[in-house]
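Supplementary Methods S3. Complex input for the zinc ion-bound model.
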Amino acid sequence: MKGLADLLLLGNPLLYQAAKPVEQAELNLVKTWVSDLHNTMEEIRARYHFGRGIAAPQLGIMKRLIYINIHKPMVMINPELTYLSPELFDVWDDCMCFPNLLVKVKRHRSLTIQFKDENWNDQTLDAANDLSELIQHEYDHLQGILCTMRAIDEKSFGWRK
Ligand SMILES: [Zn+2]
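Predicted complex, serialized as structure tokens:
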């Protein structure tokens, strides 16, 4: 079982690599990956008091897989953003790969995302505000993009107290 000790940290080259699609034949592996992601997020929450979502590449699992757990768990396999609103908003973003660093970024106010769920069923989700910026953060991880790379300017960095 993977956990906090397996989390890749800022600067690890794998965090800048694009992940590969999950194959349907890998669905049994998805169960293991999701429990690893869940376990890691629980450990982060216990230690740092944040964490709503995590992407598989953060554990070095280079697959297009996102796990979100706000009120209930949600698994997104091979997600694709199909709509991004023109309206943007500023967010102080955080990331488990650099738990004390905050980065001010611009995110789209709302979006639509399509993905397969843990049963390989097609799903479409419309999200706005908090959920929208969270999904954009996790989706970026699948493309090898960290929020440090989206900082609005050179002063858009803060330290979590
Ligand atoms: Zn992150």
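Helices lie at 27-48, 129-142. The mean pLDDT is 97.
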